[in-house]
Specification:
The strands form three sheets. The protein has a seven-stranded mixed β-sheet, with helices on both faces. A four-stranded mixed β-sheet has the order 1-2-3-13. Strands 11-12 form a two-stranded antiparallel ribbon. α10 crosses α11. α6 links the parallel β7 and β8. The protein is an alpha/beta fold and 426 residues long. It is globular and about 60 Å long. The chain has twelve helices and 13 strands. Helices cover 38% and strands 13% of the residues. Bound molecules: 4'-deoxy-4'-aminopyridoxal-5'-phosphate.
Length: 426
């Protein structure tokens, strides 16, 4: 059955003329299968509809922001109510204080909160706070870890300068010796250690954090006076109702949040402990839209659902079902599928698939069967998912795996992914 995607194609053609490259950043379809839609019309619950009217069960959840379902009635009602009262005003509403209180009550290391718009705002503000606190410059972070698209951390440094990325040392995630060597190299200039809550880099297997690594990062910060920052922008609220490193028993000084904290409305946050309060108060950070009240109203409702529902237990249960169901179906079809990371944020990669040709074909086949999966980035479960959704995903996977079985010997390399095996850059 041929898919009609004429509206998507038409929009792409028009975009070419008025948007550089037709699209930018993570939604550039340059690194997705050719049949993936670039433009969408709407979302509701667990589904998104592309501009050609095709619905998909969406395992990307907008790259994280959708935690309680698209267009969640309770959260969006709070958003719309506040929109009617006022959103971008000359100053914040009382909701800012209420939300800061709710976040501080929820996250055990946090004594204060500051709000911004994107995850990158929060991670950049964390870095600035750490440098203000320590009056030192060097930041240690893990190779391949994503912390946003500002010049200091953007993965593709075209248009940035070496100075933008100065005073940084990269280490290997979960490798204590490499972390210790980075700290030694920083000498007496260490401002902070950044840590992703788990290794969630693109294109490779994900890895849980080792408790020993997390504890050593804490100790090294305490020894040097540097601040420990957990970047929970992506994983926040999908592993714990607290900072994700509480799961390994380590409390950071700062944590960064975004994506799902307002269930898709534009809001991010930097949380910190008292130790960093004075420094956070001393830096100049702001933005025209940072005090918007409607996303804060949405965040308060989102956190209410976090506290009063069993969403976390449910997404873990769904994730377990998805993982074991896929394991069964892939081995029955004769494939070894590596499923890594927490079950609420899964990534699937096929064995013997260094250039992802199998992954691309499988993902296209899933799309054809009404499920939007990602071939090389971790996915996200949301609390709107039902047993029926998981069943539908597994049925689609059965069909997609059978199609892959038939085609796997004839699949050609995907030219746009050549960098994976040639070592070039994307
Ligand atoms: N940190 C992490 C761990 C992320 O996953 C992201 C976004 N993918 C960011 C920071 C940046 O967030 P944003 O895209 O909202 O700026």
């Amino acid at each position: 059955m041929a898919r009609t995607n004429s509206r998507d194609r038409e929009l792409r053609d028009r975009a070419e003329a008025v948007i550089p490259g037709g699209m930018y950043g993570h939604q550039s379809t340059a690194l997705l299968p050719d049949d993936y839609p670039q433009f969408f019309e709407r979302g509701e619950g667990t589904h998104i509809w592309d501009v050609d009217g095709r619905p998909y069960i969406d395992l990307m959840c907008a790259y994280g922001p959708n935690l309680f379902g698209y267009a969640n009635p309770q959260i969006d009602a709070a958003f719309v109510r506040q929109l009617g009262l006022g959103d971008t005003l000359t100053g914040p509403t009382a909701l800012m204080v209420e939300l800061a209180e709710a976040m501080v009550a929820m996250v055990s290391h946090a004594d204060w909160a500051m709000f911004c718009k994107n995850g990158t705002d929060a991670t950049t503000m964390a870095l600035t706070t750490a440098r203000a606190h320590t009056r030192k410059k060097t930041v240690i972070r893990a190779k391949g870890a994503y912390h946003g698209a500002a010049p200091w951390c953007v993965p593709r440094p075209v248009g940035t300068t070496e100075n933008d990325r100065a005073h940084q040392i990269l280490c290997d995630y979960n490798n204590i010796e490499s972390l210790e060597a980075a700290v030694a190299e920083a000498g007496d200039d260490l401002a902070c250690i950044f840590a992703a809550p788990f290794k969630h880099d693109a294109f490779i297997d994900q890895a849980e954090p080792q408790a020993g690594y997390a504890r050593r990062a804490r100790e090294l910060c305490d020894l040097t006076g540097a601040l420990l920052i957990v970047d929970d922008v992506r994983a926040g609220l999908r592993l714990a109702r607290d900072c994700s490193w509480t799961k390994v028993g380590v409390q950071p000084d700062l944590s960064t949040w975004g994506k799902c904290i307002a269930n898709g409305h534009g809001l991010s946050a930097l949380l910190g402990s008292d130790k960093a309060r004075k420094a956070a108060a001393s830096i100049f950070v702001t933005g025209s839209f940072w005090f918007q009240a409607a996303p804060m109203a949405a965040a308060i409702e989102t956190l209410r659902l976090v506290q009063t529902s069993d969403y976390l237990e449910r997404i873990f249960a769904m994730g377990e079902r998805l993982r074991s169901g896929l394991q069964e179906r892939s081995s029955a079809a004769g494939f070894s599928l590596r499923q890594t990371g927490p079950v609420t944020m899964p990534l699937f990669l096929f064995d013997d698939d260094p250039d992802l040709r199998k992954g691309f074909y499988f993902s296209s086949q899933m799309l054809e069967r009404g499920v939007y999966v990602h071939p090389w980035h971790n996915m996200f479960l949301c609390a709107a998912m039902s047993d029926a959704d998981i069943e539908a995903v597994l049925n689609a996977a059965e069909g997609a795996l059978a199609a892959l079985r038939q085609q796997s010997h004839t699949l050609q390399p995907v030219p746009k992914l050549a960098f994976l095996t040639t070592g070039g850059t994307r």
